[in-house]
């Protein structure tokens, strides 16, 4: 079925443009026609597309892509490594404009990793909305930089984990590891098996990090957080991440994980396109102000927009992608265009998903409709309406 979306304004991935008719067929953008003050010239629009016309009031932007999503909607992937859990998480984040995501499993037992992999394989096979693959954040991490990851499950890599990471039915695969605890040879093996290797939760020195990058690692998980810091005589993981022109860095812009001045410096230092927004989201996303949850037997409490374990550590986020975009504008002083690219185009490029992150002919029809407050009115995945806010429904 063809349909045409008439939009007041849209962002194509590079610049904002005014009124247009965007035609979608089988989940792909097949035509974009400008509308001038005289209206739409119907001779350029396929009649079949005009049979189903939607007028959208607001600004249409590319759907957001999040490579680090632990939970949402009350669900935690570690606690319920199932297809239904993944769908719950996806529905929760669609409210905030996420149209593509990697369900993320933090450090856990190998049987839980296998269950999570099976669930993602089912999600990929059944075309579950928004599921792009899986992110294993651990278990091959550094104990001194473990954060809330359970120390009892941190371990050296074995054939069992390598077998899971090497599966061909998981879509896009990301593994976060500490390079001081995983050899260069193993990193090369992971990369050869189509794994995107991210470095994080690590106390590695600069030389060890550079060696891992040379072996094929190409990303850093939540830059600055849970990694060896930058110093005058020891650049650490942060220094290596900022120096690398090829590696991408995920950045949590919630006002708690990274100081705004620190985030601004990172964005200035890195080549444009190499810093992407991530949420590191936990179950309370989409669940109201007072939601708490249990993580490996420890209660995690929400206080406003902050999550802390009872022991005091930050325990992920209640950040969502549209919130990360708006924080990047208000806290970091970025132009809205660049903040949108950091939430859509750049993570899509990191994942080599070149059909995402733009509104152009041939791109997947993943859209977010923003209102005048730059919050989400509607979310579309492959041209299908996934979410509509109650206020927008009443308005329309």
Could you characterize what this model shows?
27% of the residues lie in helices and 28% in strands. The protein has 12 helices and 20 strands. It has helices at residues 47-50, 83-94, 110-125, 159-165, 184-192, 206-214, 236-243, 260-269, 321-330, 336-343, 345-350, 390-395, and strands at 2-11, 16-25, 28-34, 53-62, 64-69, 71-72, 75-76, 98-106, 133-137, 172-177, 195-199, 219-220, 248-251, 275-277, 293-295, 298-303, 306-309, 367-370, 376-381, 384-388. Strands 5-8-9-10-11-12-13-14 form an 8-stranded parallel sheet. Strands 3-2-1-4-18-19-20 form a 7-stranded mixed sheet. Strand 11, helix 6 (206-214) and strand 12 (219-220) form a beta-alpha-beta unit. Helix 6 (206-214) crosses helix 7 (236-243). The protein starts with a strand and ends with a helix. The mean pLDDT is 94.
Topology:
Layout: E1 2-11, E2 16-25, E3 28-34, H1 47-50, E4 53-62, E5 64-69, E6 71-72, E7 75-76, H2 83-94, E8 98-106, H3 110-125, E9 133-137, H4 159-165, E10 172-177, H5 184-192, E11 195-199, H6 206-214, E12 219-220, H7 236-243, E13 248-251, H8 260-269, E14 275-277, E15 293-295, E16 298-303, E17 306-309, H9 321-330, H10 336-343, H11 345-350, E18 367-370, E19 376-381, E20 384-388, H12 390-395
Parallel strand pairs: 1-4, 5-8, 8-9, 9-10, 10-11, 11-12, 12-13, 13-14
Antiparallel strand pairs: 1-2, 2-3, 4-18, 6-7, 15-16, 16-17, 18-19, 19-20
Helix pairs in contact: 2-3, 6-7, 9-10
